[in-house]
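Teaching assistant's notes for section 4

Start the section by putting this record on the projector. Ask students to predict, before seeing the second block, whether DegT/DnrJ/EryC1/StrS aminotransferase will look compact or extended. Collect guesses on the board.
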Amino acid sequence: MLRAAGTGTGDEVIVPAFGNAEVAEAVTLAGALPVFVDIDPATYCLDATEVEAAVGPRTVALVAVHRFGQLADMPRLWDVGRRRGLLVLEQGESEAPYTEIEERRAHAAFLDGRLSGVRTPERGAGHTYQQYVVRVPGNGRPDRDAFARALRAKGIDCRVPVKTPTHRMPAFRRDVCLPETERAADETLALPVHGSLTKRDMQRIVSACNALGGLLQPAF
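Reveal the predicted structure now:
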């Protein structure tokens, strides 16, 4: 799509640094330069205010990536694109059957009401919970990583959703200040909410997480 729009050498394309290195790779393959912009900490998607601030004379496009089943703020991003003359592209996530989405939402609601010691995700309109991503706040040591190891030891299948932001990767390293991206990469952890989980499984997740509260400083 970038190539079809005539994007090429000397052009810049705004992209998120939180995950999705393939988006930056696509920009590079089109001959353009990826410009990394910070995320909205609630949605993990591009922050429209940061996008507008990053627009320069060579900026021709932006790529919004929907994350974890949460939609980017497309009305604001489209508005920025319209006013600044930018091509606005979206990278979506694979669609799941309606019943699977409803099961994930039910499991997410169960966790929202029972987890303590972690920050639960924002319940945005249309959230499909492709991943249920919590925050394990740090206090100067790798609390998220210790928390994840302890959960796995209890048989809970959790994972770090973004281990290295794209702007930290050798192929795309940039000297940019992206505090929300950095914080999210250090604090986020995905807990299981897939449809095959039973109520007993969900209770085990809650019990295991809440029993580890001593690893953490207060979340709020």
